[in-house]
Amino acid sequence: MDGGLVARDMSSDDLTQVMTIENNAQASPWGRLSFEESLTKSHFCRVLEVAWEHEQGQQSQIVAYHVVCPILDELHILNVVAAPQYQGIGLGHRLMHDILEIAEHHQTRRIFLEVRASNEKAQSLYLKWQFKQMGLRKAYYRRTLSNTSREDALIFMRDCTQA
Fold first, then answer.
1. Residues paired with 5 in a beta bridge
2. Looking at residue 63, which CATH number applies to its domain?
């Protein structure tokens, strides 16, 4: 899939596809307003899009995205998602590569994120990208939109000064 895969800035025109992925991939998905606000703030909102030739011309589909918030000389990863049908083929690594390019370009010293304690696949990805667990937020995530119970978040950090 990597041949036709392009990373680009997210636009408001992408939100229908992004929301479909978000609602299908996340236990407690962001609402459209969260994405709209991220697009109008100084956040970095990026998509991975695959394109192919079709009888009616070129077709494209968003398969993954991320939202990153700069804070002084740090980045906070707010959302990293691959469409469920494309998980396990390396899109998470492609998103992390894109995030690290942003960090390098903006001379970021540290990158932070929270990940569900139950999300072992994401934790494994972050560890491969030299993130280290540095803390815990008790009852940070809702388990699902309809469930009132909460799940802990693990706080991860990558020191970009020691790369």
1. 50
2. 3.40.630.30
